Predict the 3D structure of the following.
Amino acid sequence: MLKWLLHRKLRAFERDHAYDASYMHEVLDTDLGAFMKFGLATSVGSYRKDCPLAAHVAAGLTSSMHADCGPCTQLGVGLALQAGVAPATVAAIIAGDETAMPHDAALAVRFARAVIAHAPEADAYREEITRLWGPRAVLSLAYAVIAGQLYPTLKYALGHGKACIRVVVGEHVVTPTRPLSGAA
């Protein structure tokens, strides 16, 4: 009965967001406990304290784009717009155009890229984030980076991550930038 309800919720999510979550149906069919644990793990992405929404979204989308070239990023775009982030800001994040982003989003993009690349620049960005918004903001952005890669990584591990698509922000097609080495 619980699996039936969860499949139903997944189908509603797929309809509402025009997203193929067949890999999550597969996880649910394989092991309910594994499905529940993954749901708990992904909940870290909802933690946002003391940092601007655009910064949180920028960190998550940057991370998602590193791990995925389309569907998960497109879902993130839709959720960002639904949360109230300006379409121009979301488009700039996807395009990697830091000059077109608000400062907070650009800082979060640089931080996320540095964290993913294990680059020493992450230290300076972390200090600036702490100075501007405090230590909970650093944690918020760190969790956004982690969460941004969870779904795409699972998708690819299960053999569902084969499609690359164009990302649409509002009515405009935006080409995602993938500046990090090793990005597929």
Confidence is low (pLDDT under 50) at residues 180-184. Strands lie at 167-169, 172-174. The CA atoms of residues 55 and 103 lie 9 Å apart.
